[in-house]
Amino acid sequence: MEEEEKEDKKEVLLDDKVLPAVIVIKDGKIHEIIPRGEFSADAGFKVLDVGDSVVMPGIVDCHVHVNEPGRSSWEGFWTATRAAAAGGVTTIVDMPLNSIPPTTTLDHFNEKLREAKGKCFVDTAFWGGVIPGNELEIRPMIQAGVAGFKCFLIHSGVEEFPPVTDLDLHRAMKQLQGTGSVLLDDNLLRCTLYLFPEHLHLDPTEYSTFLQSRPDLMEIEAIQTVTELCLHYQVRCHIVHLSSAKPLKQIQAARQAGAPLTVETTHHYLSLCAEKIPAGATQFKCCPPIRDSNNQAQLWSALKAGHIDMVVSDHSPCTPDLKSLDSGDFTKAWGGISSLQFALPLFWTSASKRGFELPDVVRLLSKRTAQLCSLDRLKGSLAPSYDADLVIWDPDSQFQITEANIHHKNKLSPYLGITLQGVVRATIVRGRLVYQEGSFCPEPLGKHLLIPQRKHQAS
C-alpha cells in the first residue's frame, strides 16, 4: 500500500464544526477523516503532529493581480505564490490585468499558462477579460479553462484593458448564457457626479481629495447597471471589491427578484478607514477608495448578515515609484494595495473582535470563493475526495508586519509596522508541504491549471 500521511490535530474545521480529528492524505487528496479517539498510530503512516494549532481548508483568494508577463517588476508568479503560501492561501485566481498581454484572447491565455509553468508554489486558476470586440473569444476561453470573466465600466488604469460599453456587455452576456460561467463587474461607473481631482482645487496630498473624486454614487450606478443585466440574461454576475455599503439594499433587492448575483469586499475596506489615513500616505490608495469608519461598520454588519458573500485581497501591487511617494500626491499615485500574504490574519484580527468565529473564516475566505470560480468540488472544504489543501495556524498568536517578513516582490504596504493576530505555521497544497515556519519547499509545484467544474458547459 502506498504511504499515507496523517495530519494529527485536536481542532479541525469541518464545515461549521470544530472537532478533534486526524486527516488522512493519499495521492494529494483527503482520503479519510478519522475522529481523534479512533486513531491509532500505524507504521505505514507518516504523521505530522501540529500541536495546538488549528487545521482548516486552505484559503482560496479569487482576486489576485500577478501581472506576469509584461509587468513582472510589479509582481510575478514566483513571488506572488510564495507570499500566498506563507499566508495559508492554497489557491489564487489571477486577474486578466495588469499583465501584458491581458488575458482577453485564447492566445493570450495560453501565453499566461506558459509564463506560469514551473513558478507556482500554490494552485493557480485564471480569470479572462471582457473588452470591446472580444466577445467571440469568450467561449473558447471557457473551454480552455478560465474561471470566468472580468470587465471594467470605467478606465481600468491600463491602456491595454479598455472599459466596455453597454453594447459590449450585452454581447458578452449572450455569449455567457448557458455556460455556467460568471461575469465579474467592476463596481465603478463614471456617473453624473464624477469629479476629476484636478478640478477640485483641493490639496492632492490629502486623502479626502481623492475620496471626494470617487463618491458612493459611482458604485450605486454601476451596480444598478449590473443587476439589470443579471436579471435580464440570468447569467451569474459578481460584484468585485465593494467599498461602499450604500448599494447593499439594491443588491439584496436584485437577489430577491431572482438575480444570480454575488458580491465581495476586501480586507482593506474592513481593516482601514479614511479618517486615519495620513496626508501624503499614498500607500493607502486603492480603487474604489477606502471610506469612513461608519461605512466600514456597515460592511461588517452586512458580512455578519450574509449580505456580502466573501472577502478577498484584491492584491494589486506595483513598483514603489508608481505610488508617488516623493510628492505624496494621491491623484497621481497608482491605486492598489498588496495584502495577499496577510489575508487570514488581517481578517481574523478584526473579525474575532466582532463576534465572528472560525467557521466564518472558512465560509468567507475559502468555501464561498471556491464556489464563485466553480472550484468547490476540489477546494474550500475538508472532506474525502477534496484536494488536500490545508492551512495550519494559531489564531491566538500575534506578529508584526515588517519588510523582512513580506514575501511580495515589492514591500510597500499600508500595514507595515502593525501587529496582527493569527500566525500561519504551515501550508499544504495537494498533500505537499509548501511552507512551514518561514521556509518554503525547494521547488514550486509546476504548472497546474485548475479547470472549473460547472453545471453547464459552452457548446
CATH class equals: Alpha Beta
Overall number of structural domains: 1
CATH fold type:
TIM Barrel
CATH superfamily: Metal-dependent hydrolases
Overall body shape: globular
The fraction of residues assigned to DSSP E strands is 15-25%
Please give the CATH architecture. Answer: Alpha-Beta Barrel
Overall pLDDT metric: 91
What level of helicity do the residues show? 10-25%
DSSP summary: helix tally: 11
Category by helix and strand content: alpha/beta
Please tell me how large the radius of gyration is. Answer: 21 Å
Unreliable stretches covering 5 or more consecutive residues: 191-195
Order of helices and strands: EEEEEEHEHEEHEHEHHEHEHHEHHEEEE
Q: Count of DSSP E strands?
A: 18
How would a textbook summarize the main sheet?
Answer: 9 strands, mixed
- First CA to last CA: what distance? 42 Å
Protein model, in words:
The chain is 25% helix and 23% strand. It has 459 residues and is α/β, with parallel strands linked by helices. A hairpin with a 2-residue loop joins strand 17 (432-436) and strand 18 (439-440). GO terms for molecular function: allantoinase activity; cobalt ion binding; zinc ion binding. It comes from Takifugu bimaculatus. This is allantoinase.
